[in-house]
Amino acid sequence: MAADIGQGSFVTFGSVLGAAATHYRVNSISLGGVSRDVVDASHLLTVGGKQFIASEYYDPGELSLEIHHDPSLNPVNLLTNVSTTQACVITFANGGNTTTVWSAFGFASSFEASVPKDDMMTGTLTVKLSGTLFAGS
Prior knowledge:
By secondary structure, the protein is mainly β. It contains three helices and eight strands; from the N terminus they run βααββββαβββ. The mean pLDDT is about 85.
């Protein structure tokens, strides 16, 4: 496994966001909340500890983008005007000229902005992923 930095990584989000790396000036990309439910398989004759099995389905999680906030781009439109899922593609820079691509469908689920007195205005755009998360293609 190679260790690397994120410089050169970027996200596209359907026709809504385009190349977010240049349009919204992404500072960081976070993917979290990928999980699988646990089903209690214990019964009335179970002795000792509970028994569990993995759910058939998993939650593909959320994608959070820390961006430079530009109020004129109005990222709130992503929440109010687009209710359908869009193709979301994360391209990770793997050093040199190689990349690894992860993809899923998703929709914008939240936006927060921070406007400090003497620092860069930033925002966090969260995309809820839905369906299969294709990793490492």
